[in-house]
């Protein structure tokens, strides 16, 4: 009698386990089916889906600002008037006049046509100086003006009512393209050119000097 009860219990257990396994398989198939039917699912592999924009962060600008040492906090100091906190590397005292090198970077969002949307950060102090001359020398090394030839993508005209405007599109060494307004004389001169001479400002990364971003600063001729 006991043997028959054991056999019955084992049979019921096997039936339950088989039922659970089938349910799990069915549930998995249903979940996969639901995901595949959703356009936002990670399983969706439509080749026509839009690609995301390319985002990069680049050094954008520097400036030297005069300030005054405020409170001393351990090995740090506050700099007035903005009350920024910096290391007190120059062993300054409260009330000392100093100059700070301030840095701004930019987030470049580049679309498929290589056009940029620029998002600038706020100014941030990164180094202090006891005299303005030394600060200005560092600034000169971080922002370098150069004259060079760049690719001219093309020129075009736009017309609104009775007004016509001319534009030139150039490609910077970074690969980004920018549009600049030009007059009729420059439009005629550039119309058949492949390259143009421009003035660029190379802004170097303070922490990694080899990393730089070139900004258009005008036509060289």
Compact summary:
The chain has helices at 2-36, 132-142, 184-190, and strands at residues 54-73, 76-80, 84-87, 97-110, 116-120, 124-129, 143-160, 163-171, 177-182, 195-204, 212-219. The protein is an alpha+beta fold and 221 residues long. β2 (76-80) and β3 form a beta hairpin.
The biggest beta sheet reads: 6 strands, antiparallel
Give the N-terminus to C-terminus distance in angstroms: 108 Å
Overall, the morphology is elongated
Low-confidence stretches: 1-13, 20-51
Order of helices and strands: HEEEEEEHEEEHEE
Portion in strands: over 45%
Please state the structural category: alpha+beta
User: What's the mean pLDDT score?
Assistant: 81
Number of strands: 11
Q: What is the count of helical runs?
A: 3
- Cα-based radius of gyration, to the nearest Å: 32 Å
- Give helix % range: 10-25%
Name the descriptors:
221 residues; alpha+beta; six-stranded antiparallel beta sheet; 3 helices; elongated
Write up this protein.
The protein is α+β, with helices and mostly antiparallel strands and 221 residues long. It contains three helices and eleven strands; from the N terminus they run H-E-E-E-E-E-E-H-E-E-E-H-E-E. The chain is elongated and about 60 Å long.
């Amino acid at each position: 009698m006991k043997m028959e009860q054991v056999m019955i219990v084992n049979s019921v257990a096997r039936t339950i386990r088989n039922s659970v396994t089938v349910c799990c398989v069915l549930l998995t198939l249903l979940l996969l089916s639901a995901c595949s039917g959703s356009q936002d699912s990670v399983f969706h592999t439509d080749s026509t889906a839009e690609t995301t924009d390319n985002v990069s962060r680049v050094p954008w600008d520097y400036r030297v600002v005069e300030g005054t040492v405020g409170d001393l906090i351990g090995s740090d100091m506050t700099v007035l008037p903005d009350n920024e906190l910096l290391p007190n590397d120059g062993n300054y005292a409260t009330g000392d006049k100093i100059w700070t090198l301030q840095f701004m970077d930019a987030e470049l969002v580049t679309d498929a046509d290589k056009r940029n949307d620029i998002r600038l950060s706020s100014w941030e102090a990164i180094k202090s100086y006891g005299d303005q001359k030394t600060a200005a020398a560092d600034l000169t090394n971080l922002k370098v003006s150069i004259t060079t030839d760049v690719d001219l993508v093309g020129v075009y005209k736009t017309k609104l009512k009775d007004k016509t405007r001319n534009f030139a599109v150039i490609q910077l060494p970074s690969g980004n393209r920018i549009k600049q307004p030009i007059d009729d004389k420059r439009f005629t001169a550039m119309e058949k050119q492949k390259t143009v001479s421009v003035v660029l400002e190379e802004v170097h990364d303070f922490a990694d000097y080899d990393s730089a971003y070139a900004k258009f600063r005008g036509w060289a001729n």
